[in-house]
Amino acid sequence: MASDTSMIDGTTAVLPSRPRAADQRGVTVWATLRSFRIDIFGAIGLVLLVVFWWGLTFVVPRSSLPSPLNVFRRIADDFVVADMLSYYGLPETGLMGSMAYTAANVLIAVVVGGLIGTVLGLFAARVPVARAISDPILNTVGTIPILVMAPFFLIWFGTGRWSAVLLVTVYVLVILYLFAQRAAENLDPVYESSARTFGAGTGDILRDILIPGTLPQVLGGIRIALAGAWGLEAIAELLGAQQGIGKIIEVLAGSLDIEGIFAALLVLGIVAVIADWIAGALVRYVTRWSVSARVGTT
Amino acid sequence: MTDSSQGKPNDITFTDVTRTFVRGDGQEVTAVDGVSAHIREGEFVCLVGPSGCGKTTLLQMVSGLLPTSGGAITVGAKQVTGPGPDRGVVFQKDSVFPWFRVIDNVEYGMKRRGVPAAERRDIANRYLELVSLSHVARAWPKELSGGMLKRVAIATVFANGSDVLLLDEPFAALDYVTKHQLHDVLLDLWRSTDAPRRTILFVTHDVDESLLLADRIIVIRDGRLVDDIAIDATRPRDVDTLTRPDMMTVKHKLLAHLGLEHGSRRSAAS
Ligand SMILES: Nc1ncnc2c1ncn2[C@@H]1O[C@H](COP(=O)(O)OP(=O)(O)O)[C@@H](O)[C@H]1O
Ligand SMILES: [Mg+2]
């Protein structure tokens, strides 16, 4: 079943524990080095992409594709305050401040939508009546392209922060509902039975079995939802907002400022990649007990 | 059932126990059909029978995970109405929680019963040592082999101090050598306890396993108790014990119950 290198069978011998501890440390160091090496490959990939982009600028006219160097310079110039944008009445023109606004919205939506979706999903998996009610609603919402809801949210909640947050929250909620429900259904009932023979009550089972047992899939769902949330939040801002990366893109598009749009998109992309990287590391640590976690680390 | 020992903390009484299931196609199946028996305190009983005869169903009703459709099961003085820590279960499937380290698994039952942290760690360490797993106390279950996981499950129910142990084909998926090692582990743990011993109900379809382990073998067929055989052999038992004429007689009888013996041999043996 599991990898043979890490398996020490108690049937053969009782090994002294000291060398084993050292072994484990060696394994950890090796795993760290390996993931570091993979990060290097990732960095090489990024460099290649930038080189490719730079090469393209010799073929494509500058008005359609700005050069990487100019975009980087633009990011540096507009990082705190963007003079170009001060005429548009934005409360925040800097890339950093706009990105912080967008990131905060995504964070709120992922946390709130993730929590509600997970709770509903687990509940639906264990209480048939709850499922009979929530399944049709959430599955219907899930089949509607989420952006179709954006105009309604704008009409109901205005162009402030909460229309965009709500849109992303619904998106995350629907994904996590499905992930949590499926995870709870796939959890082997033997664990709950076993816990009950130890005298565990409903609350104990929720805390000791259902939540840890579904955590790998739930966190996997959070990662997928997070990846999609960035783009959705940006588009929601583009459609109607006071600030944020999406708003900046909308304003710059009005003045055909391709370079500025690229700068904003690049900042959004970099933040999204870093967020996914952090989330991935966190998930791997929290679910390091899981059989698939080992496969996932390579 | 009207035994004078009734009411002791760890004897089991089955009174006309029945369990029916309604299948998906609407058909009713009687999985356990009017079983009556008394298991004395400290007895090691094997439940033997062909696949689908109702062994798991019977065991699950003793554990309280499954209600009876008729009749009653009493453990000690109490009628079974639900699961409880007085009855420890080792499931056929691996039931060690993958998200807890080995030591935390062994402590889990004690934790639920409110045993103080330091005390339960001591007890858990002691039982891990008894099943030769001290070196993996801090490991995750995924790092253990199938045989090691069974050792953890056994250590867990023993550490929890259950009076009655219910084991449902615990070693069926293990290789020959590991299985025999675990027989010794189980018997040593059971015999090492100061009297009174724990009562053990051990489900198996392996005839030799039942002959090596049991004080008494109860045979189930089609949900009914069809035979109840006392095994009169001292422990430890080995291959030679199994070839003794009286043991061979029992073995032939069991094989016949499983439908593996022809009528002529069966009558010749008994
Ligand atoms: N949940 C269930 N629903 C319907 N039938 C069941 C269920 N559990 C067991 N049975 C039926 O009861 C009978 C006994 O099953 P079981 O106790 O698992 O047998 P064994 O453990 O001896 O192999 C079988 O015919 C099985 O199909
Ligand atoms: Mg069975």
TrEMBL record, chain A:
Residues 95-279 form the ABC transmembrane type-1 domain. Keywords: Cell membrane, Membrane, Transmembrane, Transmembrane helix, Transport. The chain crosses the membrane at residues 40-60, 99-125, 137-156, 162-180, 261-283. The keyword Cell membrane applies. Its main location: membrane. It comes from the Bacteria. The keyword Transport applies. SUPFAM superfamilies: MetI-like (SSF161098). It holds the Pfam family BPD_transp_1. PROSITE patterns: ABC_TM1 (PS50928). InterPro entries: MetI-like, MetI-like_sf. It is found in: Cell membrane. One of its GO terms (biological process) is transmembrane transport. This is NitT/TauT family transport system permease protein. It comes from Bauldia litoralis. The lineage of its organism: Bacteria, Pseudomonadati, Pseudomonadota, Alphaproteobacteria, Hyphomicrobiales.
From TrEMBL, chain B:
The keyword Zinc-finger does not apply. Keywords: ATP-binding, Nucleotide-binding, Transport. This is NitT/TauT family transport system ATP-binding protein. InterPro entries: AAA+_ATPase (IPR003593), ABC_transporter-like_ATP-bd (IPR003439), ABC_transporter-like_CS (IPR017871), ABC_transporter_ATP-bind (IPR050166), P-loop_NTPase (IPR027417). Belongs to the ABC transporter superfamily. SUPFAM superfamilies: P-loop containing nucleoside triphosphate hydrolases. It comes from the Bacteria. CDD domains: ABC_NrtD_SsuB_transporters (cd03293). It holds the Pfam family ABC_tran. It comes from Bauldia litoralis. One of its GO terms (molecular function) is ATP binding.
